[in-house]
Amino acid sequence: MKTPGPIGLDADVRAAAPTVLVLLAFFVLVTYVPGLSIALPYAFMGPELILTR
Fold it and tell me: Averaged over 24-42, what is the pLDDT?
């Protein structure tokens, strides 16, 4: 990464744009598609177990 100058951030913004767009698209999908917001936690962590005595 080059040192930031008055117009030096242009290349850095262009380099980070694909990653930011992928993260934004994933966030929108998880937020607005109800099936994903339910299925993803189960897929990664399994069902929540509530143990009572």
Answer: 88
